[in-house]
Amino acid sequence: MKTIFIDGLRVYSRKLGAPDYVLGSLVAEVDTLTKFLKANADEKGVVRIDILRAKSGRSYLKLNTWKPTKTKNETPIEQTASLDDIPF
Q1: Dihedral of the CA atoms 68, 69, 71, 72 (nearest 10)?
Q2: pTM to 2 decimals?
């Protein structure tokens, strides 16, 4: 699976001496990021981004392209009970 880095969005690790609640920071280049998001949105208009740590210790962002696969034996469960059937 090919790694697709996020165009227009950079992540920086927490600076030395920063408070514990600071995880890091992001810098967005609006025009570049907007084009990337529009080009990579799924059918629902969503872009999933993973925040990862390289072997060097630096953080980076990667497009999450995973999609669930349906198996042939997968069938939806039919709901037969209604709210009126609940005993309480």
Answers
A1: 130
A2: 0.71
Instruction: Show Cβ contacts of residue 71 under 8 Å, excluding neighbours closer than 6 positions.
Output: none
CB 11 within 8 A of CB 61: yes
Judge whether 50 and 62 are in contact, CB under 8 Å: yes
**Boundaries of every domain in the chain:** 1-66
| Per-residue model confidence as pLDDT tens digits over 25-40 | 999 999 999 999 999 9
Angle at 44 between CA 38 and CA 45, to 5 degrees: 20
Which DSSP category does 50 fall into? E
Q: Give dist(CA 26, CA 33) in Å, integer.
A: 12
